[in-house]
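Raw record, unedited: M48 family metalloprotease
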Amino acid sequence: MEFNQGTLDELMLKAQQDLTSDQQSYKRKLNLYVLMAYGVILLLLLLFVGLVAGTVGLAFTSSVFLVLLLKKKLIIPLLIIGWMLGKVLFLGTSKPEGYRLRRTEAPLLFGLVNELTKSLNTPRVHNIIITPEFNAAMAQTPRWFVGGPTENTLIIGLELLMSLSKEELKAVLAHELGHLSGDHAKFNGKIYRARAMWEQMMHSFESSGSMVTYPMRKFFSWYAPRFSAYSFALARLNEYEADLSAAKHTSAATFQSALVKTSLLAEITDEDFWPQYYRRAYEQPAPDILPYTAFKQFMDAGEFGDLPLRLAKVMAERTSPHNTHPCTKDRVEALGTFNAEVLKLRENNAWQLLGKSAHKIIKEFNDNWLMYNGQEWQFQYQLALEQLARLKLLDQMDPNQLSLDQKEELAFLLDKFQRDPERVVALYDGIMASKPHDLDTGLRLAQLYAKAGNPRCLPLFRACLAKDELVNDACMGAYGYYLHLGDGNQANEWLDKLVAHGEIAERARQERITVGAKDPLMAPTLPKEAIDALAARLIAIGRVEDVWLCQKSVQYFRDSPVVVLAIKVGGWTGKDEVLEQCFGQFPADWTSFIVTKDMDSALFKKVQTKGSQII
């Protein structure tokens, strides 16, 4: 895709200005982009039908043309275009996955949804799906083909159901259904479907790398940022409109409570529940209680730590320029003054709306989790046994006789198993005295200092700003430290650093989404030992005959490499499995791409030219 983040930012600003100054004019312009999307698809479809009809006619009237068609492989471009058009128009977008509720299983939940669809005057909800996540969403997908009838699916996360009251869940569902209500919903649905159609088509075109699809890729590089910017501005406005709809059909206070509770408890779930749950693997060869049963107990207990500090963090978040959802604070304040005292974090009876299906769903999610995570749990348990044995050995040694490596290992193990926190701090402090540029150790020491309220954390947090990968944690650590002290001004300074870094991180992410023949590639600058180790692992797979390695030149987070491998795989079958194994050999901190000649011949050739052959 031949546009950069700066271009997209400028277009988004222009779209926002157009929306603010003249909403009707803005919508007309956005509608033109949508019509352009469907127009191009229709033109391609007509061209394809015409080419096929002409080709078939010539093939039947001219045996010479039929021979040329087959011998010169002139039919291949037609097959490529036909497959891609069929994939977009008739396969549609992927259907949401999860536990599909039947009306007889949860009549109370279906009754609530029916009540809301009537009061909001929305189209029918065809399906209700339960997923494990802490989320709710409305999905519109084509039933048969793009542009035809759609299917509305309400997606509700089990963790969300276990966290909210029935009234709060009603407010959340009213927000999601609000996206389907009113005249703007039809327009928004058209925008959504056009975006989904183009994303799917261009994913197919870009992955093909064929010269046949080059004109479409070229058009998309112009079209995509404009359509994305203009549809983004409307999507953000519609979030506020859906919020107002939810507040109207419940109450402003109820929806504000639902917004804050969702943000707050989602963070607590990620930061407290799951880490605590996985720590059980250090002591148990198999979980004594499965996660979604444990999550229900966790929410019922309501032991959520320093709630004022956590609430302050949630309400201090800023709206990201690249997220269609405004931050919690902006959405809450748009509905009026918020009173934190109305929050009832231990009211979580919404899950009862699942009726008799609740325990069945929890069991199914538990069983699925165990199927996918049981082996990893056992691995972590065995690893913990070995590490505890090593910890006991190191702990028995004379501290004055420990090498620096042994001190680092001892500090890590004591920290991991939460043993003797004061000794952990002392060990990390000694390590930093010997290795003052070890910023990873510095961050962990700063976090421990901050937890104890020790101002020695601050110079360490500042030092960590020099390493891109640590900036987010350093800013959050210092922000939390100052909030705990009640120093809002200093806390906001660190929050500003966090927001600025977030924008840079988004640009870095955009740089790392794709790689193509037109991207700037360069010879590898990775350490020779890292390249040799990767080569050895690839050779061990077998059938990997030749490998060239280069790096994509990036503007942001240059210490985090973007590696591109051109690979030749021997044999005629099973190449996908070999490539999948190759992907598993990259270090976790690399952004990695693999290309074969069949995937993208131009990129393959450029990697050969710019890179180094490692096998």
